[in-house]
Amino acid sequence: MSISDQELNEFRAQVSAWMRDNKPADPGFLLPQTFMEVGDERQLDFLREWQHKVWSAGYLGMAWPKAYGGGGQQAVFQAIADREMRRHAVPICFNVIGLGWAGPLILDIGSEEEKARYLKGILSAEDIWCQGFSEPDHGSDLGSAQTRAVRDGDEYVINGQKIWTTMGNFAKYMILLARTNPAAQRKYDGLSFFLAPMNVPGIEARPIRKITGEYGFTETFFTDARIPAGCLMGEEGQGWKIAMQTLQYERGAEAGAAGGLMMVRVTIDDMIEQLRDVSRDGAPVLHDPVMRDTLVKMIMEEKAVALGERRAHISALTSDYPGSLPLSGKLRSTEMSRRMRQFAINLQGAAGGLYVGDDAARQGGFWQRAYFNSFSATIGGGTSQVQANIVAEHVLGLPK
Question: Which of 56, 235, 276, 346 is 20 to 30 A from 98, alpha carbon to alpha carbon?
């Protein structure tokens, strides 16, 4: 069914008015810049209430089926709602692992029972999800995961450890990759995938303090933790295949996410506006020719990333290297974002060394905090080095 420009414009105006009228006031405490910084109950309660409000208004999960709590509409409406969220700088929709990874996976390959059980709670923020992939000794080498899942009647007994479990201490469910057959000839064939509950005896999530001084990640320990056998997704031994599909959502190469903001988006224009009055040797620092040259290059790169996202959906423009833009999107966007935040600190000169809590810090130390937080995006979902290998092997056809 085609949608007229008038319908889209009317919807955009409707969303814009709602965001303007319902954007919450400053709560009086520091809010997370991304879903990876939800560190205390105050932040959790605030963001849970906000996500529920956005979903109740019909602006989250718009393309998911109505039977599972979605809006049953075309994806273009969610794209418009997301753009308006960014434009109005509203808080993030924090349940990203559910909204962007677990949810689309369940929609694509889950049973009707799994869809009915899990999807609505993801959208409403009632059920928080986390991810149990990386391990202390097997971070980027996901295929070597050693957390064990042993079948015992109608249950699996889980033993092992996961690391960098975002919101693991708040989550109700985990997408868990565990080894069910350690004797498999290929290590990948011994892995299985679970939609595992977190509130069972034997699971402990310990918060990790980050360089920002904030929390958000945990290390998760499984000690004879028993989960129902029905938590297995697919069959035993299919875990690697399902995990790779999940990572396609995480890395932005597959559609299906429920929408919403997963991080505070800042642009080059934001940086220029906030730092245009910074002076050095009596003149605005942005008048310096070296700084201006760097700035222009960053503007070009930001524009290229944005246009690449649009181009990726036009098959005639990607026929030379199909899939190249989605597969390289995470690498390009996260590295550009990190460099832009670093540049914003460099522009401040000596004041760039100040941080959140220092009265003299510009914008309350926003750019310093944003820079430190940017590293989580270059690591999560596969490090930049892993992403470069993916591009080399799967786009350029280079040998391993």
Answer: 235
Domain that holds residue 141: 130-250
Q: Which residues contact 78 (CB under 8 A, 6 or more apart)?
A: 59, 60, 61, 62, 63, 71, 258, 259
In a domain, 256, yes or no: no
Q: What is the pLDDT of residues 275-313, one digit of tens each?
A: 999 998 889 999 999 999 999 999 999 999 889 888 887
Q: How many other CB atoms sit within 10 Å of the CB of residue 346? A: 13
Main-chain dihedrals φ then ψ at residue 39, nearest 5 degrees: -115, -15
Last residue of a domain, one of 224, 250, 276: 250
The DSSP bridge partners found for residue 195 are 175
Domain match, 109 and 161 both = no
Q: How many domains does the chain have?
A: 3
Tokens found for residue 383: 């490090």
The pTM of the full predicted model, rounded to 2 decimals, is 0.87
- Please give the torsion angle defined by the CA atoms of residues 167, 337, 330 and 75, in that order, rounded to the nearest 10 degrees: 80
CATH of the domain at 177: 2.40.110.10
